[in-house]
Amino acid sequence: MIGLYVDHISPSITTLGPGRRIGLWVQGCSLRCKGCMSVELFERRKASYFSIAWLTERIISYAQDHAGLTISGGEPFEQAESLKELLENIHKYTSLDIMVYSGYTKEELLKGSQAMIDLLNKVDILIDGRFEIDLSPSKPWCGSDNQTIYLLSKRVQKYRPMISPNQYIPPFSLQVEIADDDYVRIIGIPRRGELELMKTLLLKRGIELKR
Ligand code: SF4
Predict the structure, then answer these.
(1) Between 79 and 139, whose confidence is greater?
(2) pLDDT tens-digit map of 95-154
(3) Three-state SS for 39?
């Protein structure tokens, strides 16, 4: 069975990309950026391996009233072959645009394996580059200022005003999701120090955040 290591899927996210989106977080990343806020996704877990068919159905079930699918992680391009298959299905059965976060730069991806290049060809919006904790972000949806937002396909050019420096949408907003699996997740790009502040304030109210 061809499949993908996926941590979770969340519908109705509005903090990682333009419009209302479905978020998909993959497991596994060898890049290990200092200060990464997703360290629990560094390793792949056997129990989190899902078939492409199942993932396709799940995403289709959420697709109505969503503008796109945002894929983060973990490092999506480290499962390039399987993810490419999933995105082929998403393009075939939905009108969702596809936004992907990668710790690899676009140049690195273009010099990578054929599977990486094929996957890149299925992506509409790419945010590329390692997370650099010392480079605070000033652009929407980016974790650090070294990262670049690429609008790769024709259909996402309508978002160009949102990423032009004079018309940035507010880059910092966070969502809190209380998910079916009993996890509470913070979705979005926090400002530096914001997570620690949130933990401290919640602890004062008797709520301990594990991570
Ligand atoms: S590439 Fe992304 S998931 Fe991987 S370590 Fe860097 S920030 Fe974390």
Answers:
(1) 79
(2) 999 999 999 999 999 999 999 999 999 999 999 999 999 998 888 899 999 999 999 999
(3) helix
Is residue 130 in a domain? yes
- Within 26-138, residue ranges assigned H as helices are 52-62, 80-93, 106-110, 114-120
CA distance 103 to 209: 26
| CA trace torsion 163, 167, 172, 173 (10° rounding) | -100
Which of 128, 130, 147 best tests ligand 1's pocket when mutated (most atoms within 8 Å of CB)? 130
Query: Could you tell me the distance, in angstroms and rounded to a whole number, from the CA of residue 38 to the centre of ligand 1?
Result: 7
From 24, 32, 105, mutation site for ligand 1 pocket: most ligand atoms within 8 A of C-beta: 32
- Global pTM value: 0.92
- Render pLDDT for 54-65 as a digit per residue (tens, 0 to 9): 999 999 999 999
Q: Is residue 170 included in any domain, yes or no?
A: yes
Is residue 28 within 8 Å of 6, Cβ to Cβ?
no
Tokens read off for 24: 């998909």
Q: Is the pLDDT of residue 172 over 70?
A: no
CATH at 119: 3.20.20
Largest distance between two CA atoms of the chain: 51
**Residue 160 falls within a domain, yes or no?**
yes
Q: Is residue 86 part of a domain?
A: yes
Range of the domain at 103: 3-204
